[in-house]
Amino acid sequence: MSSPATCNSFCQNPGTLRCTRCKGANLKRFYCSAACQSWDWKFHKQYCSKKAYTFELTLLGSSNPDIKRVFDIPAWFTFRQLHYTIQYAMGLWNCTHLHEFSFQRLSNSHRNLLTPRHDILKIMPADHLKDEFDMPPMPGMPPRRHVFKEREESLLLSDIFDPAGRLRCIAAPDEEFLPLIYLYDFGVCINLYRRRLSMLMSSM
């Protein structure tokens, strides 16, 4: 038998009451009393009855066991807010180094840090995006594939994952989402294995 939910007003009492408007929503709020629900409304009203997505993160290169995190996040969150959520979920990283999201086509099913990247859509901070430039192909090599680029501060999760999202056809060209990679540079080591941390994410 599952343990009772905790009241979302942070009083730590068991919560048995539910927000009636959120019955069909992914994000569920529980309360121990009407007073606690009233206190929480100033926070809850931002996403009351709105949709949320469940993400599963897997740390690439981890095994026995795999290092994973699973969390719900509101559909109206931006990718910048997803970045902060990942930082918190992985143990309060300091959010101070380079990072980016990208939807990629994988060359094989065994993804690791050295797997060649075939970016389809890159999502990054605006100040990094303006410094991004496309390298010309090496002599004798085929032209590089076009990569779509978006700012994480303004791109909503619903722009990608909602059935009517404006970029869904890019991230899910065959009605199946490409792998979403979150790349975070700790900036403390030269060795690629230690310097860069990648995560494979899926929206459940």
C-alpha Rg, in Å?
Answer: 20 Å
Helix- and strand-based class? Answer: alpha+beta
Estimate what percentage of residues fall within beta strands: 25-35%
Largest β sheet strand count, sense and barrel closure: 7 strands, mixed
List keywords for this structure.
alpha+beta; Plasmid_pRiA4b_Orf3-like; 2 domains; two-stranded antiparallel ribbon; 204 residues; MM3350-like_sf; zinc-finger; 6 helices
Please tell me about this protein's structure.
One of its GO terms (molecular function) is zinc ion binding. It holds the Pfam family PRiA4_ORF3. Residues 52-130 form the Plasmid pRiA4b Orf3-like domain. This protein is of the alpha+beta class and 204 residues long. The chain folds into two domains: 5-44, no CATH class; 52-203, Structural Genomics Hypothetical 15.5 Kd Protein In mrcA-pckA Intergenic Region, Chain A (Roll), CATH 3.10.290. Helix content is 19%, strand content 26%. It has six helices and eleven strands. It has helices at residues 34-44, 79-89, 126-129, 157-161, 168-171, 192-195; strands at residues 5-6, 14-15, 17-18, 30-31, 52-59, 68-74, 99-104, 119-124, 148-151, 180-185, 196-203. Strands 6-5-11-10-7-8-9 form a seven-stranded mixed β-sheet. A two-stranded antiparallel sheet has the order 1-2. β1 (5-6) and β2 (14-15) form a beta hairpin. The longest helix is centred in the N-terminal third of the chain and has 11 residues, at 34-44. It is elongated and about 70 Å long. The protein starts with a strand and ends with a strand.
